[in-house]
């Protein structure tokens, strides 16, 4: 499970922000997963939220938090491909502060793997790894796996005789974690694979025509497991009532079917369906798969083109303890305030709010950080501005400017 993700000096994020899946209030047992570490001292328990939402006005930095996770994951998977002197694609510092342009970008993540806590951290410049470290906590005790300061890499636990070989093969712009994972060092491989398992959908990916079509290359698989997934996806899509009674793949293309006035199946091209129907057909299998495998789904504006009832139903699946039995998590950035309505039963610590300060820096906080706010109608309070992170529109000023423009003489 993902417990925490921290990032600083990345795009609109200057000072460190933390996206946390750790519940702030254990007295409220709603929408949390409990994992017990049997090897820990005093039988240490870990708790994680099943879902978190990220709200805020346009250009506040919501998408940059999702993007930070996405590019962090990509770099971990691809850094071993870097040649000497190649630039590090992950390095994208905050541009509105001259000092930040010469500072490293930092990323840190807390993961629960087999009920043991792992913390992986990274600091980078344009062409070099500045710092890198991996720690884990068997029996609740902090143990170093490795620590890196530039090209000085210090051995920790679990490497035996292979450490020097990996060290010599790691360039200044490559991650030691990636190299160690490729060499099948168990502790490094666990962290690498866990981060790699996140299913991250940025706006560029999720809202592209290619994504809507590409699921067919996966879901129409002849294996029994994928056939069961396809059957269940069709069942849910029929129950959502988008009037699609079936869909199949033919020569790499998805075909949908509707009933005509005689009750006969009529074939349609996938592109003939509305954007909302395409989104339902392409996104539902991903949701079911994440719940089945207990993985983390991260999506930017997943609700776009979806009816609010459908978006709320998808969210409810992750928050339902009878459904989400494998510890799956859902992280999403959204503008859909209906997801905040009382019937969705979101906790205060599940609602992240993002806004920019006077310096143009993205800041993040949760509703549980706001004094005086208890459980209640978060949708109403957000729309009233009580929770902050709302767009500031100079309505009256612009109205008069618009009236003057409209009434002005042309030429």
Keywords:
globular; 12 helices; alpha+beta; Rossmann fold; 411 residues; 2 domains
Describe it.
Helix 3 packs across helix 4 and helix 8 (224-240) crosses helix 9 (275-293). This protein has twelve helices and 18 strands. 30% of the residues lie in helices and 25% in strands. The protein starts with a strand and ends with a helix. The chain has a seven-stranded antiparallel sheet with strand order 2-1-6-7-8-9-10. It folds into two domains: 1-198 and 295-406, Rossmann fold, CATH 3.40.50; 209-283, no CATH class. With 411 residues, the chain is α+β, with helices and mostly antiparallel strands. The model has no long low-confidence stretch (mean pLDDT 90).
Proper CATH architecture of the largest domain: 3-Layer(aba) Sandwich
The total of helices stands at 12
Overall 3D form? globular
Low-confidence sequence ranges? none
Layout: helices, strands, pairs:
Layout lengths: L1 E7 L8 E4 L11 E5 L8 E5 L1 E5 L6 H17 L26 E9 L2 E9 L4 E8 L6 E7 L2 E4 L7 H6 L7 H7 L3 H11 L2 E3 L1 H4 L2 H6 L1 H4 L4 H17 L5 E5 L2 E7 L5 E5 L5 H19 L2 E5 L7 H12 L9 E5 L17 E6 L5 E5 L11 H6 L11 H13 L4
Parallel strand pairs: 5-16, 5-17, 11-15, 15-16
Antiparallel strand pairs: 1-2, 1-6, 3-4, 6-7, 7-8, 8-9, 9-10, 12-13, 13-14, 17-18
Helix pairs in contact: 3-4, 8-9
Offer a quick outline of the entry.
With 411 residues, this protein is an alpha+beta fold.
